[in-house]
Amino acid sequence: LKAGPLAGRRVLVTSGPTHEPIDPVRYIANRSSGAQGTAIARALLGLGADVVFVTGPAEVPPPEGVELVRVESAREMLEAVEAALPVDAAVFAAAVADWRVSSASSSKIKKQAGALPALTFAENPDILATVSQRTAGRPALVVGFAAETDDVEANAAAKRLRKGCDWIVANDVSPATGIMGGTENAVVILSDEGAERWPRMSKELVARRLAERVALALA
Ligand code: C5P
């Protein structure tokens, strides 16, 4: 039996990038390593939660002890997230691709002299917004992330309202901060209560403090 303030609580975490297929051997992706999402899942486990970890193809290995669901594309991630409901809280740390190739080829696209493939795109579902705006079975607490390069707080505050989540964890990913791909993070937590600015600290510590905040909110 688990002990801790989140014992008996089921929490969903999404993490990593998504891969959007072009054909059976090619895909479009992004540079998310999955580090922050993995740290959050580990911190939630540490507080006794049952964690459903829905991850795209991440660089860092998933934590042990989670209910692990591996997915590739954004649409698969949405399906896995909806299958994992109901949960008490959901933390959306994945870097979901905004677009997919609208008609991925079922066979490898052949290279042809003088001809370039023309890819067209379709918009992916917004998983955070979809879950936040559910009328039935919405988690009591929904947390999103916002990686911004300018007007961090204003953009993140607008994003929180647009998506309908409870909290947004906002950070400045301008190259000068060294946060993207680094081991530290400096975040602002936006909620109905306003903005809470945390000093720069390790991503592990951000994860632990966030997990504690989740435990307090569910208490
Ligand atoms: O709109 P933007 O991508 O900046 O929003 C970031 C937040 O939304 C993150 O929490 C991310 O996990 C979530 N998201 C999502 N599905 C998408 C796009 C973003 O869940 N298709």
Automatic annotation (TrEMBL):
Its cofactor is Mg(2+); FMN. CTP binds at D98, K108, P125, D126, I127, L128, F145, K159, K163. GO terms for cellular component: phosphopantothenoylcysteine decarboxylase complex. It comes from the Bacteria. Residues 11-219 are annotated as: Phosphopantothenate--cysteine ligase. GO terms for biological process: coenzyme A biosynthetic process; pantothenate catabolic process. Pathway: Cofactor biosynthesis; coenzyme A biosynthesis; CoA from (R)-pantothenate: step 2/5; Cofactor biosynthesis; coenzyme A biosynthesis; CoA from (R)-pantothenate: step 3/5. The keyword DNA repair does not apply. Its EC number is 4.1.1.36, 6.3.2.5. It catalyses: N-[(R)-4-phosphopantothenoyl]-L-cysteine + H(+) = (R)-4'-phosphopantetheine + CO2; (R)-4'-phosphopantothenate + L-cysteine + CTP = N-[(R)-4-phosphopantothenoyl]-L-cysteine + CMP + diphosphate + H(+). Residues 6-215 form the DNA/pantothenate metabolism flavoprotein C-terminal domain. GO terms for molecular function: FMN binding; metal ion binding; phosphopantothenate--cysteine ligase activity; phosphopantothenoylcysteine decarboxylase activity. Catalyzes two steps in the biosynthesis of coenzyme A. In the first step cysteine is conjugated to 4'-phosphopantothenate to form 4-phosphopantothenoylcysteine, in the latter compound is decarboxylated to form 4'-phosphopantotheine. In the C-terminal section; belongs to the PPC synthetase family. This is Coenzyme A biosynthesis bifunctional protein CoaBC. The lineage of its organism: Bacteria, Pseudomonadati, Pseudomonadota, Alphaproteobacteria, Rhodobacterales. The chain holds residues 179 to 397 of 397 of the full protein.
